[in-house]
C-alpha cells in the first residue's frame, strides 16, 4: 500500500549515514513494530552497486475494518446488542492471514448463538470480509439466512402452585408481552414467542414471586415437546412452509 510504504520510508530515512550494525537494524524493527497498521516486519542490510549498505525492511500490513454490515436481521432483534457480541468492530486493525479466518468463524458462531438465544431458530449466518488489494480498509458483511421465530403452542401445568394455574399458563403463553420484548410481539404477531432466554426470565420472575409469598423452596421444572413440522394435525402456523423446510417453530411446555 503506497501510504504504508511512504510512512515507513519517512521513518527509515533517519538511519541514513548511521553505522550498518545489528543495533540499528533491531532499532528499526522494534520501532516499526509499534505502528498500529503493521502485522509483521523484518529488517536487514543489502549491498548496492557501489557496495554501500542499504537498510531494507519487509513489512506485512494489517487491515482496518471500515464497516460492519448486518443484512437480514429481523426487525424485532436489536442490532446494537448483536454488534456488542462481535469480535470484529469498526476501526479494529486485524492481521490479514489465517487468524482473520478464525475470527470470522467466531463471529459466525456468535451471530447464530445470538439468534437462537432470542428465539430465531433455523437461521444461519455468512460472514465475509470484502476489500481491495491496494487498500488497508476492509468491510465485514454478515448475512443472515432463513430462520423463523419460535412460539409457544400449549402450556400444561401439573402439581400444586402457589398461584392460580391460569396465571402460570399466561406467564409462559405471553412471554413476549413485556417492556423489552414489545416490538417482538408486533413483529411475530403473537404474544407466545419462545426462546430459552425468555423462558429463563419468566421462570425466575415466577420463582421470585413465590418466594415473596413465603414459598421459598418452590421450584419450577419445564419439559419441552417440539411439534413436528410434518404433523398435519398441528396448527397451521406450526407446519412447514415449503418442501425443504425442517425448522421446528412451535413448542409445548409442561410445567411441574
Please describe the topology of this protein.
Blueprint: H1 2-12, H2 22-33, E1 38-47, E2 53-61, E3 63-71, H3 79-84, E4 93-94, H4 98-117, E5 120-121, E6 124-131, E7 137-145, E8 148-149, E9 151-157, H5 165-173, H6 182-188, H7 196-212, E10 222-226, E11 250-255
Parallel strand pairs: 3-7, 9-11
Antiparallel strand pairs: 1-2, 3-4, 5-8, 6-7, 10-11
Strand order of the main beta sheet, please? 4-3-7-6
Mean pLDDT: 85
Q: Structural class of the helices, strands and pairings?
A: alpha+beta
Beta-strand content: 25-35%
Low-confidence stretches: 182-188
The dominant shape is elongated
Counting DSSP E segments of at least 2 residues, the number of strands comes to: 11
The DSSP helix count reads 7
Task: Report the helical percentage.
Answer: 25-40%
Q: Return the string of H and E elements.
A: HHEEEHEHEEEEEHHHEE
Distance between the termini: 65 Å
- How many strands, what sense, and barrel or not for the largest sheet? 4 strands, mixed
Rg of Cα set: 29 Å
Amino acid at each position: 500500500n503506497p501510504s504504508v510504504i511512504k510512512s515507513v520510508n519517512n521513518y527509515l530515512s533517519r538511519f541514513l549515514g548511521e553505522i550498518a550494525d545489528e543495533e540499528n537494524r533491531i532499532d528499526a524493527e522494534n520501532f516499526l513494530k509499534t505502528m498500529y497498521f503493521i502485522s509483521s516486519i523484518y529488517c536487514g542490510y543489502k549491498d548496492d552497486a557501489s557496495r554501500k549498505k542499504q537498510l531494507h525492511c519487509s513489512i506485512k500490513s494489517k487491515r482496518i475494518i471500515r464497516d460492519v454490515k448486518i443484512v437480514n436481521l429481523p426487525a424485532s432483534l436489536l442490532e446494537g446488542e448483536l454488534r456488542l457480541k462481535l469480535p470484529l468492530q469498526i476501526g479494529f486493525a486485524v492481521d490479514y492471514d489465517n487468524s482473520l479466518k478464525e475470527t470470522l468463524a467466531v463471529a459466525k458462531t456468535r451471530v447464530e448463538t445470538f439468534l437462537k438465544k432470542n428465539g430465531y431458530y433455523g437461521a444461519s449466518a455468512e460472514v465475509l470480509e470484502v476489500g481491495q488489494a491496494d487498500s488497508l480498509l476492509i468491510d465485514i458483511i454478515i448475512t443472515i439466512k432463513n430462520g423463523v421465530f419460535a412460539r409457544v403452542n400449549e402450556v400444561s401445568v401439573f402439581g400444586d402452585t402457589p398461584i392460580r394455574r391460569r396465571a402460570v399458563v399466561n406467564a409462559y403463553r405471553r412471554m413476549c408481552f413485556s417492556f423489552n420484548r414489545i416490538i417482538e410481539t408486533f413483529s411475530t404477531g403473537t404474544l407466545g414467542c419462545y426462546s430459552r432466554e425468555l423462558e429463563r426470565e419468566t421462570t425466575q420472575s415466577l420463582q421470585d414471586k413465590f418466594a415473596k409469598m413465603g414459598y421459598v423452596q418452590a421450584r419450577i421444572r419445564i419439559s419441552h415437546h417440539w411439534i413436528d413440522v410434518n404433523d398435519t394435525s398441528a396448527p397451521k402456523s406450526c407446519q412447514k412452509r415449503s418442501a425443504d423446510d425442517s425448522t421446528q417453530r412451535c413448542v409445548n411446555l409442561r410445567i411441574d
